[in-house]
C-alpha cells in the first residue's frame, strides 16, 4: 500500500518507465511515504475493449 | 465518472458494441447523467484464469 | 462471473435497484448467460474522492 | 480513459487535491493526452482493512 | 505485487485477521514468494450495494 | 460475492488450480459461506507492466 491501478491504452516501455517514475514520485511526496512501498499495475486495453459515450473507442476513432 | 469495469469471458466485437451501448444507456438513464461521461472497460478473462467454487472454470467446463 | 464493478456517486436505494436490474438484463442478454451468475458491486464515491481533469469533483461543482 | 484507481490510507482534502493534480499531470504528459479525459478515484482504506505480510496494518502499527 | 482485492460483506476484526493470514499463506506458498511482498485490501460492501441475479442482496435476504 | 481479484505474475495452470483452491477454502472457512458463491479472477501481469519503488519490475530484475 498504496496501490495504483492504471487503466489506459497500449504504451511503449519508455512511457511505462516514465509513468511509474512520475506516479510514484507524486504519491510518495503527497503521502510522505517511501517509494519502496508504492506499487503500480499498468493495464493496457485494446480500443475495442473500451467504451465511452456508449460506443467502442475503436469505432469512435474511425469517425 | 461513472466508470464500469466488466470482468467476463472472451467476447465478439458485436457483443462488445451491444454491451457498451446497453450498459451506458442503463447508467445514463438511472443516474440522469450524459452518456459522454460514462466509461467502460471490458476485461476478457481466459477460463483458466477464473475460479468458481474452488475450481478453475476451464476444468468445470470439462465435466 | 461475469462481475461488474460500478464506480459512481452516492445513489438512492431505488437507483441501485434499477441499476442492478438494468445492468444484469443487458449483460445476460448480450452474453446469453443466466442472470443468476452475474454479480455487481456498486462503489459510491464522495465528490472529494474523485478527480477529473486534474481537479477534485467537489471543487469543480463549486464553479 | 485513462482511469486511475488509487488505493491508500485516509487523506486530507489538501492531499487529495495535490494527488489528483500530480497524477493527472504525469499521465497527461507521458501519454500526450488532454487532462480532461483522465479520471481518478481515491479509495481510502482503514488500516484494519489492509494486510501486508499476512498481518493487518493496524496490528503492525502497534508493534 | 502480488496484490489481492477482496470484495465481500462486513467482517469482524478477527475475521479480517484470519482472512489476511490465510490468503497470504496460500499465495506465498503457491507462488514461492515472501509474505512481505503480498498486500491485500478488504472491501466491505453493504448488502444494498451488491447485486446478484438482477436484485440487490438486501432485498434477496428479505425473501 | 465474495469476489477476489488477484494481481500477480504469469502462473502455470497447476499454480492457478492451487491458488483458486486455497483462496476459496480460506474465504469459505473465515466467512462461513459456501464455496460455490466465491469467484476469483487471476490477472497475470508482465514484469514490464508492474512498478515498485518507482521502477518497472523488469528493470529491477536485471540488477
TrEMBL record, chains A, B, C, D, E, F:
Keyword annotations from UniProtKB, A to Z: Isomerase
Isomerase as UniProt keyword: yes
The EC number(s) this enzyme carries: 5.3.2.-
UniProt KW Isomerase keyword: yes
Residues of the 4-oxalocrotonate tautomerase-like domain: 2-58
Ranges annotated as spanning the membrane: none
GO molecular function (one): isomerase activity
Primary enzyme class: isomerase
Pfam families, per the entry: Tautomerase (PF01361)
InterPro entries in UniProt: 4-OT (IPR018191), 4-OT-like_dom (IPR004370), Tautomerase/MIF_sf (IPR014347)
Family: Belongs to the 4-oxalocrotonate tautomerase family.
Protein name: Tautomerase
Organism: Alkaliphilus peptidifermentans DSM 18978
